[in-house]
Amino acid sequence: MSWKLGTRTVPTGKRGPVAIGIALLAGACTVGPDYHAPELPVPAAFVEPQVGVPGANVDPAHWWSAFGDPRLDSLVERALKGNPDIAVAASRVRQARLQEIVARASGKPTVDATANASHVEFSKNAGFSSLARLFSGGSGSTGGIALPGSGITTYAVGFDASWEIDLFGGDRRGVEAAVARTDAAIWTRRDAAVTLAAEVAQAYFALRLDQDQIAIVEQEITRQRRALEIAGNVAKVGLVPQVDVTRQRGTLTSLEARLEPIRADMRMRIHALGILIGESPEMLDGELAAAGASLANLPVVPAGLPSDLLRRRPDVRAAERQLAAATADIGVAVADLYPKFSLTGAGQLLSTALGNLFSGDSLQLTASGAASFPLLDWGRRKATIRIRQEQRDEAYAQYRATVLRALRDVEDPLARLDAERRRNAALRRAAADAAATAHSVEAQYRTGFVAQDSLLNAETQVLSAREQVAGSDAQLRQDTAALFKAIGGGWSEATTGVG
Q1: Which residues, including other chains, have CB under 8 Å from residue 69's CB and lie 6 or more apart?
Q2: Among residues 175, 170, 165, 160, which one has the least CA distance to residue 105?
Q3: Which residues, other chains included, contact 245 with Cβ-Cβ below 8 Å and sequence gap of 6+?
Q4: 361-365 contacts: CB < 8 A, separation 24 or more?
Q5: Which pLDDT band holds residue 460 (cuts at 50, 70, 90)?
Q6: CA 325 to CA 319: how far, in whole Å?
């Protein structure tokens, strides 16, 4: 990148300082590189397949509502309002906006009101006091001059004004950087909302999996208790040995013990959700301990095109704005290579008596102009420019990495969803076959045609198949949430504004 510095020859001749100042302002320029958003090549379409046609009612900004679970809706909305990370991100937006105000004020004149009263008591032995006595003929004072041993009091009110002229655009580049960082903070807050919504949904889906597994095991426990009763009756009539009853009781005990780790994991999920919504871990115990209503069918994610990510993904937009800020910082550093011009002025009403302080004769005006030229700094300014250029290059690399990561974030869940859908269908067929087999084996066992081992194996297959289906259903929901997050779903202008 390069920049041009415009110059203009100003003949001074009979022109005064004001004319020269106007000419300098007219020739003012903005040094440093102008920013242009980078254009990165992205694929025309995603490689992994997108299943189905996107539903017309799926709103990426509130995608969690497409699962049809009011409890999930409530948890996400409460998290977006109460999560501490969201509050931190919102505070950073407000800080950035205040820094923008500071940057805009840098190139403007400043005016300060002043008021003071002072009293000086002169020494009797000072040379000036002796001279004053000589001219006064030994009297106390004359002509406003304080005599030895006496004092003088002055009163003053007025204002001081100063202005460092932004001739080479350093302050203007500073404003550009501040505005870009404000935009980056806003997009970072939106990215926090996107991440948080996905975390809440995935934690909730993991909780629902625990609850589904508990329900499956409890149903199996109920069935095993009936089976234990049947085994006892069959053993009494001598159709099976008593050891079958013992085995059946052991299977029941193992199932009951299996529940406890799942229940503990369920409570951990509830605690995690409590923290995500900004509450204490136990706050949601009563609300989420019982299983909720059945979830609706999986929504189809409108993944769109890879180019959409550059517009929709908050982290990509934040990285691009950081690159813009880093580019503007170069101009701020370059401006330090050039002369600085400043104007100062003061207007005061000055008098030794309050009675005539506000009269025209008390007016005192001063004005000055100054210029400073960098001569020798041992390479500090040029090194600073190189640092800012390296920071710009770093910001570009980070932006590029963010875009590449965004593409992968979409491709991965698309691949997982495609494979998991096929696996889910196969698991459901396997579960149906296992249930039919177990039903047939149980009927044969009751009549003594098969041994108990065959029945227990068939029952184990049914339980395993049902658990695998439940796990696959949860995985599909979590992958869908991950895909919504990957496309930048979970924020809107209305829900992520900050004061």
Answers
A1: 204, 292, 293, 295, 296
A2: 175
A3: 228, 231, 232, 235
A4: 364/158
A5: confident
A6: 10
Q: Which amino acid is at 312?
A: R
What are the structure tokens assigned to 159, written together? 């204002």
Q: What is the pLDDT of residues 219-258, one digit of tens each?
A: 888 887 877 777 677 667 665 666 767 777 887 888 888 8
pLDDT reading at 22 higher than 50: no
Give the global pTM: 0.81
**Structural tokens at position 215:** 């329900």
Angle (CA) 351-346-116 rounded to 5° is 45
Amino acid letter at 170? G
Give 191's contacts (C-beta < 8 A, 6+ positions apart): 313, 314, 315, 318, 491
3-state secondary structure the chain: CCCCCCCCCCCCCCCCHHHHHHHHHHCCCCCCCCCCCCCCCCCCCCCCCCCCCCCCCCCHHHHHHHHCCHHHHHHHHHHHHHCHHHHHHHHHHHHHHHHHHHHHHCCCCEEEEEEEEEEEECCCCCHHHHHHHHHHCCCCCECCECCCCCEEEEEEEEEEEEEEECCCCHHHHHHHHHHHHHHHHHHHHHHHHHHHHHHHHHHHHHHHHHHHHHHHHHHHHHHHHHHHHHHHHHHHCCCCCHHHHHHHHHHHHHHHHHHHHHHHHHHHHHHHHHHHCCCCHHHHHHHHCCCCCCCCCCCCCCCCCHHHHHHHCHHHHHHHHHHHHHHHHHHHHHHCCCCEEEEEEEEEEEECCHHHCCCHHHEEEEEEEEEECCCCCCCHHHHHHHHHHHHHHHHHHHHHHHHHHHHHHHHHHHHHHHHHHHHHHHHHHHHHHHHHHHHHHHHHHHCCCCCHHHHHHHHHHHHHHHHHHHHHHHHHHHHHHHHHHHCCCCCCCCCCCCC
Half-sphere exposure of residue 145: CA atoms within 13 angstroms, side-chain side: 16
> How many residues make up the chain in this entry?
499
Q: Are 295 and 208 in contact (CB under 8 A)?
A: yes
Q: Phi-psi bin for 13: left (phi > 0), alpha (psi -120 to 50), beta?
A: left
Residues 318-329: b if buried by 16+ CB within 10 A, e if exposed: bbbbbbbbbbbb
Instruction: List 377's β-bridge partners, or say none.
Output: none
What is the residue whose two structure tokens read 């999920």?
269
For residues 490 and 63, the answer to whether their CB atoms sit within 8 Å is: yes
* Structure token digits, residue 421: 């859908």
CA distance 246 to 228: 9
HSE-up (13 A, CA, CB side) for residue 333: 21
Q: What per-residue confidence (pLDDT) applies to 56?
A: 46
